[in-house]
């Protein structure tokens, strides 16, 4: 049986800060699944005030989580985004998406879900990845 590895994003890890008794994600064998990731800046522990800033930081946080799991963003299979407004928030997220995944034929699956505001984050996401699962 595979051993579960708790994943962190240094500076904003839930358990590290005593916010929630959960990790930022978990790796079980080759499977990586995140908890909710926000655009909180790990250096300042602050959330940028606008969607452009939050989008830029959330992608850095995704990268950090995948690296903590021993992989890269190329190991991501799907990203689910939770936004307050698809119309307003999708375009800035698309800019960062295309920076992280420039190869249009090799991007992960993605879904946008519009949700009621849950605090200050304008965007949150969860990631599913498979490390070393090549084709």
What's the helix and strand layout?
Layout lengths: L3 E4 L6 H4 L7 E4 L2 E4 L2 E2 L12 H18 L7 E8 L2 H15 L8 E6 L8 E8 L5
Parallel strand pairs: 5-6
Antiparallel strand pairs: 1-2, 2-3, 3-7, 4-7, 5-7
Helix pairs in contact: 2-3
How would you explain this protein's 3D organization?
By secondary structure, the protein is α+β, with helices and mostly antiparallel strands. 27% of the residues lie in helices and 27% in strands. It is built from three helices and seven strands; from the N terminus they run βαβββαβαββ. The chain has helices spanning 14-17, 51-68, 86-100; strands at residues 4-7, 25-28, 31-34, 37-38, 76-83, 109-114, 123-130. A hairpin with a 2-residue loop joins β2 (25-28) and β3 (31-34). The mean pLDDT is 91.
Structural descriptors:
135 residues, alpha+beta, 60s Ribosomal Protein L30, Chain: A, 7-stranded mixed sheet, 3 helices, globular
Mean pLDDT, as a whole number? 91
CATH classification, class level:
Alpha Beta
CATH architecture: 2-Layer Sandwich
Oligomer: single chain
Order of helices and strands: EHEEEHEHEE
Domain tally? 1
Helix-residue proportion: 25-40%
Low-confidence runs of at least 5 consecutive residues: none
Structure classification: alpha+beta
Short characterization:
With 135 residues, this protein is α+β, with helices and mostly antiparallel strands. It has helices spanning 14-17, 51-68, 86-100, and strands at residues 4-7, 25-28, 31-34, 37-38, 76-83, 109-114, 123-130. The mean pLDDT is 91.
């Amino acid at each position: 049986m595979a051993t579960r590895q708790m994943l962190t994003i240094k500076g904003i890890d839930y358990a590290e800060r005593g916010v929630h008794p959960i990790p930022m994600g978990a790796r079980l064998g080759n499977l990586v699944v995140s908890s909710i990731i926000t655009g909180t800046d790990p250096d300042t522990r602050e959330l940028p005030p606008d969607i452009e800033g939050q989008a830029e930081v959330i992608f850095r946080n995704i990268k950090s989580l995948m690296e903590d799991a021993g992989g890269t963003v190329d190991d991501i299979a799907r990203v689910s985004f939770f936004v307050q407004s698809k119309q307003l928030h999708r375009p800035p997220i698309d800019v960062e998406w295309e920076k992280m995944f420039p190869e249009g034929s090799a991007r992960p699956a993605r879904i946008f879900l519009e949700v009621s505001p849950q605090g200050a984050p304008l965007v949150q996401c969860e990631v599913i990845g498979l490390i070393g699962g090549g084709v």
